[in-house]
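Translate sequence into structure tokens.
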Amino acid sequence: MKISKKALGAAMSLVVLGSQAMPVLASAPTTTGGSANILDYKVETVVVPTTLKIALNPNGYVVTTKYVEATTYAAGTEYYEKKADGSYSKMDPQPTSFATGTTYYTAVTSTDQVVSLNYGIANKSTGAKNVKVDFAATYSPVDGKNAIEFVDSATKAQVYDATNNAEGAKKGEYKMYLAVASASALPTANTYAKTTDTAVDPSKTYYTKSGDAYTKVTTPVVASIGTYYEATAVIGTEITAAELSDVNMTKATVGNQAFVVGTTDKANASIAYSLGAATYALKDGEIIDFDTTQTQLAGKLEMSVLGGVAGFTLTGSVNTDVDWTEADATAITITPTYTVTDATGSEATVGTGAYNQVTLGPSLASTSHTIDASNTAITITVNNLGDETISAVINADVNANLVANGFATVNGAAVTISPTYLGYFNPGDSASIKITTSGGTDLTCTISKPAAGG
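Result follows.
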């Protein structure tokens, strides 16, 4: 029997389709279970100085706060040498160039009336952190010594003048203004000094020096110990709390926080910073494999980049029209308290945002407002109000409640001062408006009407 080509093609198609539809049989699978492993590492470490100290320098003498090793010669610079007992003396004669094998030092000096070291805060955490520092200064006078009175502005500590400084300190008043100031970020380079060790200390890291460059010694030996250097102000991964109590910084011109006077023997201030996270990397020679546990991972990693850094210093002034030898500065105790929280990235920066300083609580978007010729309503905005509310708006000069009197309204984080109230201001008038939040924060700004022709 003949089969046409058309019929044959259809039959072949059926065969192919049929073979595609046939199931593929397999033996039953064997299950053995499984497990997951997290190859991650978390560190929660913020390094801070714990002891703060100041020196009172009423007459503005040149005070040396520390000596640092000089790496390059500069004409006109005074150089010092370090003695065997650890003290320093000015070189005589002064060098005209640096000699090989000799270590030269320069002096860091201050003529401030309140002399302070510079203090650092460093984040070694694997996450960004906010660090708030609350300062409390107390004075406990000893028998026979005069008590020091903290005042809340520099002018109140300066000499009284009936015309130019009516709030100033009168003769014999032991008045002192104290403040904390932000400082620039820590330098990225370490400072070094020749080691005094005579044997290798396995807990230390040694360096060799070539010109201005320092190289880490991987296998230190006793025979060469006299040529090694140690990092004396480590700004890298090995930084310690002690080293953060004496660092090179530049004082800020913004963000200074005055100590607020509580009583005549107590003052306090607060300052806050937002610090970036540190970076951790695998140590030389270590391997992370599929089965490495988190406990094992901790020993395989080391910090490669220090996290965010910030600094502060203490500043201030004292009354010069008084015998300060009759007071006892050693009776002043300055206590810092640190609060560390996770950073959110929404922190409000202070000033231009330099020095990592932030405001963690409510703050005013502007502290100065001008009344225009039409007495247009003024809106005062509170930043970072969060879950808090605005509980009071008063004229702090006369203690008048503006909301209760119908002169201000509150809408969320905004306070609106009415045109009616602003119409009471004459040219040249001003007022301090204090806004209090439900968390107890007092925020003050000034509203003013320009003087005639101004």
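Note: DSSP finds four helices and 33 strands in the chain.
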